[in-house]
Amino acid sequence: MQLGVCYYPEQWPRTMWADDAKRIAELGITHVRIAEFAWSRMEPRAGEFAWEWLDEAVETLAGAGLKLVLGTPTASPPKWLIDAYPDVLPVRADGTRWNFGSRRHYDISSETYRRECLRVVTAMAQRYGRHPSIVAWQTDNELGCHDTVPSYSPAALTRFQTWLRRRHESVEALNDAWGNVFWSMEYPSFEAIGLPNLTPTDANPIHLLDFRRFMSDEVAQFHREQIDVLREHAPTADLLHNFMGFFTTFDHYRFAKDNAIDVAAWDSYPIARTESIALPDEQKARYARTAHPDVSAFDHDRYRAIGSGRFWVMEQQAGPVNWAPWNPVPAKGMVRLWAYEAFAHGAELVSYFRWRQCPYAQEQMHSGLNLPNNELSPGGLEVQQAAREIAACAALSALGAPARATVAVVFDYETQWMFEIQRHGKTFDYQTLVFDYYESLRELGLDVDIVSSRVDLSAYALVVVPSIAVIDDALVNQIERSEAQWVFGPRSGSKTDSFAIPSTLPPGALQRVLPMQVLEVETLRPTLAPALSIDGARGVAIHWREHVRANGETHVDAQFDDTWPAVLSRGKVRYVAGWLSHALHRTLLEQAARDAGIETQRLAEGLRIRRRGDLTFAFNFGAQSVHVPAPADATFVLGNALLKTGDVCAWKDV
Amino acid sequence: MQLGVCYYPEQWPRTMWADDAKRIAELGITHVRIAEFAWSRMEPRAGEFAWEWLDEAVETLAGAGLKLVLGTPTASPPKWLIDAYPDVLPVRADGTRWNFGSRRHYDISSETYRRECLRVVTAMAQRYGRHPSIVAWQTDNELGCHDTVPSYSPAALTRFQTWLRRRHESVEALNDAWGNVFWSMEYPSFEAIGLPNLTPTDANPIHLLDFRRFMSDEVAQFHREQIDVLREHAPTADLLHNFMGFFTTFDHYRFAKDNAIDVAAWDSYPIARTESIALPDEQKARYARTAHPDVSAFDHDRYRAIGSGRFWVMEQQAGPVNWAPWNPVPAKGMVRLWAYEAFAHGAELVSYFRWRQCPYAQEQMHSGLNLPNNELSPGGLEVQQAAREIAACAALSALGAPARATVAVVFDYETQWMFEIQRHGKTFDYQTLVFDYYESLRELGLDVDIVSSRVDLSAYALVVVPSIAVIDDALVNQIERSEAQWVFGPRSGSKTDSFAIPSTLPPGALQRVLPMQVLEVETLRPTLAPALSIDGARGVAIHWREHVRANGETHVDAQFDDTWPAVLSRGKVRYVAGWLSHALHRTLLEQAARDAGIETQRLAEGLRIRRRGDLTFAFNFGAQSVHVPAPADATFVLGNALLKTGDVCAWKDV
Amino acid sequence: MQLGVCYYPEQWPRTMWADDAKRIAELGITHVRIAEFAWSRMEPRAGEFAWEWLDEAVETLAGAGLKLVLGTPTASPPKWLIDAYPDVLPVRADGTRWNFGSRRHYDISSETYRRECLRVVTAMAQRYGRHPSIVAWQTDNELGCHDTVPSYSPAALTRFQTWLRRRHESVEALNDAWGNVFWSMEYPSFEAIGLPNLTPTDANPIHLLDFRRFMSDEVAQFHREQIDVLREHAPTADLLHNFMGFFTTFDHYRFAKDNAIDVAAWDSYPIARTESIALPDEQKARYARTAHPDVSAFDHDRYRAIGSGRFWVMEQQAGPVNWAPWNPVPAKGMVRLWAYEAFAHGAELVSYFRWRQCPYAQEQMHSGLNLPNNELSPGGLEVQQAAREIAACAALSALGAPARATVAVVFDYETQWMFEIQRHGKTFDYQTLVFDYYESLRELGLDVDIVSSRVDLSAYALVVVPSIAVIDDALVNQIERSEAQWVFGPRSGSKTDSFAIPSTLPPGALQRVLPMQVLEVETLRPTLAPALSIDGARGVAIHWREHVRANGETHVDAQFDDTWPAVLSRGKVRYVAGWLSHALHRTLLEQAARDAGIETQRLAEGLRIRRRGDLTFAFNFGAQSVHVPAPADATFVLGNALLKTGDVCAWKDV
């Protein structure tokens, strides 16, 4: 368990730096991230680098025994660069250019900007790449934030056409794959293809999807170009990018492939996230001060997979923030709890944002570990407590590696894009569906891996696929070879790779192992809720329901009151023909876990547990104190069996 | 009763065509519409026509005994045309140009595009105009759909100025008619007049109205130009355009005048329409799977008038669609019911959209009579049933012509435009008011004609005018000559043709037959609902209420609790000084019908009846089974007196 | 008590003018405002003035004994001017130019337009400046209406850069004051600084604030340029501008300084205002026909300060209007009541909008004192009644000057801008908070002055500061010298003049008199409402809450249930650490008033009282009749002690 912090020396008088370094170290923090927005100070005028201040900051921090993470400053090109190359500014979907004056004001497809980025990153890497205290580098900052991917610029258009040529080889093949005969959308050449904005009605969904795939590749390539420079000059450092929670604009699996990152780092703001995502208002109300119990864990488990087992929290909420519709103060204990929660899910490092609240500019209402007057904030005091606890307890300071879970949940970025492009009903959201399944498993006390469908899943006893748009032969082969129980949710196998309905009808290739066909689908207004029972439990479908036909030996395990099948199975494979109300998802997964030989329990409301090494951690996000389900003879290394709101404990099973 | 279907040979392998034709004919379908989006296949490159595939498609279908409706392809100009003439792309109200990539991406005022359309239509008409199996031609597709009228292009501006010059003769006359002295809006010349977009606050309402009148004329002229070509080359075919439901952007009466169409065809999607229009949420919930009982009938009755008695359903919903906020599967029976309903209202042909669900592109989630795997869909099976029933029953296959109703409801397009331009309260919508009156009459078991105020109304016993902005002398003359009962709703006679308040106050010229004046009007937030009684029934005004004064011999039949008159009358003319809650509209129309000697009944909830020839049809849109109000000795030619949800029956009164 | 009316001779035939003048005078009206939208008639073509019609109008009105207010016509530049100088059109935040076709279509920063305005105003002032019947001049009309300030034009950019240079002297100083090191936002020169629109995420709040300060100065300077001309040519007239209610886009205190106005005139539309502002829906429902009891009074009291004691209502609602989401007819009596209410608050003149409803153009649904058919409207009849009452009663016709109140509420424009720029929670609105405090004081029967924090406050016994972003030393000095009770609300002292958090934490300099610090703040979703008691009264915080620490001798008077302090005090200074539910604000102010030796009472719901001279007026905005709290031996000069809805009475305490 290692603690870090984000620090911006350029924002404070040099006279404060030494004291800051000393106090950071004394607090028990080992890692400090710096520099990722400081381009205007690194290069005040075109080509004139000014490293002296950064040299001093690095030495001051290193001198206090701290390890450093250096950020490349490309998320905020300075004004002189924009004035020299105005085409670096990105273009909105309505054709307007964005302005300078905040951050992320660059077109990711601009070759001018790519060149400028490599220039500054190379200079920075040459100077600091082999510094012994610099243990990691971060590229840019939160790629895609503020909806800055995509850009609709001329540069994006040209590169999109090139990308399409590479993917489709001939324009005839593209017209065929896209079905452009529909509405006479056929293109005479790749040069004739435009971006899919400003169409009077829906653009072709595959046009939109290929544009999203292209933009996802652009993001990955933008990062990769910096990585190639950093690998050369900083050969021993961990290279990473700080991803965001619940963020799906690019495919993180593809981004991470071929060692583009050494560790998956992400920025965790659980309370603002809870307020921002599509949760029922009742849940937003209940968890306003603790954050939803699964909102951080969901991304911990996802980024652990993206980092091939290694993940950091690069920015951790340290108190109230400034960017959600409402920004409450976290309940007492949460700032500490989130650190333990991240560690329990396998984090190597939890780095708080930020050392001291900046009293000016855009983030002045964003808290840090210190108040603007330089006293520890309430969150800072909680971090101090956690640091002391960890230092005092060997079982906590040297955790074992997290074990592979027995349960996998498949999350797929392209599915998110396809169902955003084609929600069909305005309340359908794929990630929300995945989250609902994930929450159900966590309420059953299970540890979960969130994984890509393209990895080897043979070690899992239960594989849950809340939905996956395209089911290819490789996945069906995995199922056939697998011993696991498999659960597929609605819309699974409903599309081909070219965004069309499979010729055999959905669920497409899944029919090889589960003979059935989806005849019709429907989206449901909130007042339309087909009822059903599963094992005596009553519930309804919401958002989405399918009319399916069981073929061959497929069995109907549960049906809607109107007799349409609700759950179908053959052998170890289940299919759920609708988005079921939450309690039914839990019942269903309980059955599947039982069939997989996995023991479950029903945790108290707001309670979550997670195992790491030989420890079991418990976290109370609920409004009431609860007893944790520890064995009677468990040894507590942190806290005890009675857990108050916002508290955490950990025990060893004897 | 004839059945049709929409078919897109260009979207399927040629190897499927013959089987498709055979199966279409075997299903009992007689008419097939083709070609209306196929420009890129008819003319793959500028000037190079490729008719061979269309020749084969036509011959294949005709060879199976099918009659054809050919669509001109002008709703989707191909990419080479847009690249050659980029000014064909329309301009949005904010000044941005729309892009290629979907459909309807053309500026209806572009003279370039008009020329290109005539070129392709002429070529097509010359080739197919006299083909014996081609019984009808459709121009373009759903003119105005996706809010593509108006366009704010330079071409539209020039033509608008010309239109204004023709209407107003001198700019002084225009300044006077528009009242441009207000806010110094006077124009020095016609060339100085702009389009009414991007004004810091409201544009002059008559500026907006004249622009809407102009755009309505542009749509009609665009269609007319094609009709002139088609008449020449296809002299015996029925010429038509496929209109839309609840669509009021252009004046369909003016569009249809001077034989611009032979039959009014329209596209009927009852469930998506129910979800999309301004109905109370309670009704949207209740009728989510059956559609609102009057939502199709309303347009059947409207288009029957627009077609001077002849109307077709060119596209009929055949299952779930893709474009409403939510898209449920219709209740069992509805796909069949809608056909009978259309026939009962006088349709000659009901043509389903579409033969087979297209697995790719924008409408892949739009159902058809066949699933993408080419088996009949649930809707297809219902059509099969209907076709067999009709074939088996002479009384159904050879229906009499629909008789003129005894009740007329006046619908007026300019009133819709004026009250959209000047809602005055954000929940006031004219068409919704008309629909509320129409629904009341239908709940009373009455057949209704929806008509223009400009036709001869002398044959009706009851004329209901839910509102009409401008009451001219011609209409008052009709009232004076008429024997009918007349009911006028609020805002009637509230405007002059130049969008001003009449100098004698509203209801303007109506005062000649009903002396009264509207002193003040008010729009009502949902919490403000002045109460009243009519004949002991309690209710409220919603949306709109007027403070009126009865003059001369005018009698106050009902008043609000605050003593303002609610219903006024003199002799056969009634005026309703507010938008009353629904049950009061029904009570009021019941009284008026009684005074007109028309017998009414209160149908069970969700039940509707409609007479054609010697048959009475009954339709159950409600959640409960009901007994239809057939005489005890009626002869049923379809179904029986107990009607389940989604079912239809028909009987002869003996 | 003098009555006025707005009249537009150019909109009516000359044959009506003499009769209009006669009827206006007969009604008891003494003042008529004319000409403020008539540029196209004053100067029909560039440089060709046509004064003859205006001469006649002036003489006709003056001949009837009426006094005139002349408006400069610069709110509506005519089309020939726009055609000659298209750059006069303003630019929206998205970069689009607004069009001609309504009003306020000018860029306030356009130097071309400034020159044109001075040209027309000079010509007008030369001709009419010394006319004996013209007693006042109004510049432009409702500056800033329709969100027409700001403009994002090139002209605005250039002038903004100049303004910044003047304020900040060097770009280094600006970069420092703005904290531009954050996100590398540093500017190399003043010329490099842009407008704060179209940034991918939030612009720097101080960038936004300085732009608002600049735009506020632009508005004041635009007005001042006209005033300089008018002072020269109309040396004896009252010069004014007609402000709007609840309008805060520019700083009215700065606008009015250095005699830029002689009297503060404002346009009062209480019912539309009630519907438009951020009131709870329950209040909008309750007061839909009477307007909220404080919505007019709030601005009467504010503009009385802005006018240094002199204020007029330049436009008073005379019946239903046309621009709110819904527009009900006022309850009987309100049009009369509003005049008395304005007088009670100190108005010299109440001028109704408008003489006669205009039957055409944008405001045809806006009522006047006459209907379009020239009979007195219901509102006109109420004005007639009021005029007769006043004429018949010396105590009413010659009211004393309004006395300074014992209670002051501080309202600060920059605070509004800062908290709009940084709401932090989407339901936080500063003016709404001020209004809530004001309402509480008025419910306690108190007369209130609304004042700037920069004036001498030493004469007040109670000073209420619902919030003020920046607390400077001058204000603390006032507190120290003052004998008054002071109440500060949340966010007070939370910012520096450069939009940063004070280095000593909020409430900044207030700590000199009230030692305490705000550690953390939070915004509250509607479901999150920390509870507390004050003096046994239960309530909650809404929208905003602070975690504060009492330092030194500061006493915690009340605390939240979770133990955070809610009300703190030391001596005469109180601080409220949250936005409390309304009844708690009232309890708190009741305590503060008691401590200040001010007697309070709890008025019946909807009842308000206000003293002027030796009269006390009472107004009933509530749904029930109430008895007014007059002494038993009071002498009523208007009405009596039992007050119906919409009625007013006035008495002398004996």
TrEMBL record, chains A, B, C:
Residues 405-598 form the Beta-galactosidase trimerisation domain. It comes from the Bacteria. Its EC number is 3.2.1.23. One of its GO terms (biological process) is galactose metabolic process. Residues 6-391 form the Glycoside hydrolase family 42 N-terminal domain. CDD domains: A4_beta-galactosidase_middle_domain. Residues 606-644 form the Beta-galactosidase C-terminal domain. This is Beta-galactosidase.
